[in-house]
Each structure stands twice: as structure tokens, then as C-alpha cells.
Specification:
about 290 residues; mainly alpha; about 75% helix
Length: about 290
Amino acid sequence: MSKRAFQVGSSIAESYNFFLNHLPHFFRLVTGPFILWIFFKGLEKILIHEYGIKFDTTYVVSLFTASFALVWYRQFLLGAQHASYTRLVAQGFQGGNFSLLRLGRSVLRIVVIAAALVVPTIVLSIIALLLFNGAGEPMTKKELHELVFKCTVVVMVLVSPLLVRFSLLSAATALGRRNMRLRHIWQKTSGFTFALWMMTFRAFLPISLYAWVLSWMLKEIVANVEMHYLWAVLVVNVPASLMTFFMLAIVVAANAEAFRVLIGVREGDAPHRADAGKPRTENVAREAH
């Protein structure tokens, strides 16, 4: 397909249409991560209230949301028969033998993306810290954390146009295209940085704002009503988790549509489309080219 076919509005529309037409599959795939989200959030409260143990579940929950994102990619690009967590795990052990070169490429990807975020954040934080201390005011630990957070947000906003191009690598991972390189993604998305950024922005922001307002309102209600802490966990986290998974479904499908148009897929991929071609029967965990 020609790159000219990629349009922000059509990608967003395709994403919402796909979600509405595949609601049963959405609930099938979201059930496991949803239950685990609620379980660990409840466990976090139990440990702090009953045993005085602090256990931050943020990173654990992130694993569940990332897993859902990958299987939703597979739902969009490969179809329901390949969209399951067992197949996702199995793919990690198939599709090619281990090699130091492949390991090195994976590590290099992580280092490049991490450096693009961490180095500017450190530099910006140091500059802000010097300016703050130059005013003659000592900085508390809380203020230092807030400063680093603000610098991180600024860097994320500045670097986000580049990261959205590399985000298409997630679709390649879900497809099992292990040999896809950052350089290839960069070349294929040349000239579409702003369009990809706008697509991600439009897919992410409306639902995220609604979810944030809803969570804030529920937290305020819980804080002003006498309620057992476990009930409070349910009241706040059930809507928050569902809205998060909904947002991910929209963003992922829009991203997958961009991958289909800009990078290209094989015959039989994106089987929900009328122009998908003949269904493939080979092992999708293996690289086709």
C-alpha cells in the first residue's frame, strides 16, 4: 500500500471501528490483566494497612498493561486465533535460535531509547538545580523529586515525536518480525513524524483526560466517605483499569494501522480487512522476510 494512504483521521476511525466490532475479544483479552490489576492493588493496600509494608505495584501493573497491548496488536494484525497470552509467551521461545547478535541488537535498542530520555533529563535537571540553588534557597528532597519529574515530562514531550516513530517496533514484535531494525523503522516513517505524533496524541489524550477526571472524582468521593479500604480499591481501580485498557486498545490499533500502511504487512495479516488477502497458515512467530 502507498504511504500516501496513511491519514491520521482514517487511522483513528479504523481503531475505533475495530474496537467496536471486536468487543467480545476485548473483554476476553482484558479479563486476565484486569483481575491481576485489582488483585495487586488490593494486595498493596492489605500489606500497608495490616503489616505496615510498602509495596509499590506500579511496575507490576505496567507488565499487565504491556501484555494486553501486545496481544491486542496480534488481534488487529493476525486475528483472534493468534491473539492469546499463551501464544504470546510461546512466541518468545520460537522463531529462531538464540544468538549474541540478536541479543546485542535488543540491548542496543533499549540503550538508544533510554539514552534519548535519560541524558536530556539529567542535563535539564542539573541546569534547573543550579538555577534553583543560585537563588540561595536550599532544595528539599520533595522539591528535588518534583523537579526531576517536571524535567522528565518536558523531555518526554520534546522527544515524543521521535519515540512515536520507534513505537511501530511494538507492532513488529507482536507480528514476530524479529529482524526488524530501528533503522528500517526510521527509514519507512521518514516524513511522517508529525502525522504519527498527531495520531498518537488524538488516540491517547481524550480518553486519558476522561480517565484522569473520573479517577480524581472517585478518589475524592472515597476520601470523604467512610469505606473499607478494599472497597475503596474496587471503587477507584475498576473504572481506572477498564479506562486504561480501553485507551490502550485505541492507541494500539491506531499504531497497528499505521504500521500496516507505512511499514507493510504480509498477505493474510490484518484479517479483519476486506483487502487482507488469503489467510496464512504458517507459524506467524517466524520472520517471513
